[in-house]
Amino acid sequence: MASATLLGVEEAGDRRSAPTPSPTPSEMTEPEVRARLEQMFRAHHELVWRTFRRVGLPAEAAADATQQVFLIAAERMTDIRLGSERAFLIGTALRVSQTLIRRNRRMDLDEDMDLRASGARLAEELTDQRRAVELMDRVLARLDSDLLTVFVLFELEGLSTAEIAMLLDIPKGTTASRLRRAREAFRAETERLERVARSRAPERRLP
User: Fold this and answer.
1) Dihedral (C-alpha) 39, 76, 142, 175: value to the nearest 10 degrees?
2) How many helices (H) and strands (E) does the chain have?
3) Whole-prediction pTM value?
4) What are phi and psi of 14, to 5 degrees?
5) I want to staple 165 with a disulfide (CB 3.0 to 4.6 A). Which of 31, 47, 139, 172 is the partner?
6) SS3 category, 193
7) How many angstroms separate the Cα of 77 from the Cα of each of 39, 51, 70, 164, 196?
């Protein structure tokens, strides 16, 4: 009888000491969601801002874009898996940066084209700039977001393929494959578009 009582006490103790499973994102209360978002902001705000700066956005634009990323995160909190917050933020930042960079380049080009200065040199520079903008837009548009994410994490953030695999929750072999494909795709597409641009450019006559 004493043994049965002791066994019951031990079982009760085991039940009390068992850890309570963490709620899934969809099960979180509003205060828990808000606390999670605040923790994400504190932990990854600088990384998101730095990602925008490294892809060419000015500091002020990077700050605005960073706020946009966290607004998107706030709307998608139930979709962000626990432990994948950093990967989600970086992926979102890269997609937002592509949109902003293309938009800013088109705006800068439009402003330049509004200039009414005369001279063949200015016209030639604007033509070259237009070609460069079109070239970069096409390359970025063709680069898959998964490939771009791995490329930026490896080349700009300095993460190893093992760290990227853990961050994105993908096999290390997949990480290495995506990095290789990203480099090959970017280089091949850039070279192809440059050849097309050269073939279509009119020959310049010597004075």
Assistant:
1) 50
2) 8, 0
3) 0.54
4) -65, -40
5) 172
6) helix
7) 12, 21, 10, 22, 44
List own/partner pairs for 173-176 with CB under 8 A and 24 or more apart: 175/150
Residue 77 and residue 30 in contact, taking contact as beta carbons nearer than 8 Å: no
Distance separating alpha carbons of residues 76 and 38, to the nearest angstrom:
14
Distance between CA atoms of 130 and 132, rounded to whole angstroms?
5
Which of 1.10.510.10, 3.90.228.20, 1.10.10.10, 3.40.50.300 would CATH assign to domain 118-200? Answer: 1.10.10.10
Which among 168, 164, 175, 104 has a CA at the least distance from the CA of 140? Answer: 104
| Cα–Cα distance measured from residue 58 to residue 195, given in angstroms and rounded to the nearest whole number | 31
Dist. CA 207–CA 203, nearest whole Å:
13
- Give the domain ranges of the chain: 29-114, 118-200
The alpha carbon torsion through 42, 45, 50, 51 (nearest 10 deg) reads 130
**Most distant pair of Cα atoms in the chain: their distance:** 112
Considering the domain 29-114, what is its CATH architecture? Orthogonal Bundle (1.10)
* Range list of H helices, 55-171: 59-75, 85-113, 120-142, 145-155, 161-168
**pLDDT tens digit string along 14-68?**
555 555 566 787 788 889 999 999 999 999 999 899 888 877 788 898 999 999 9
- The radius of gyration of the chain from alpha carbons, rounded to an integer in Å, stands at 26
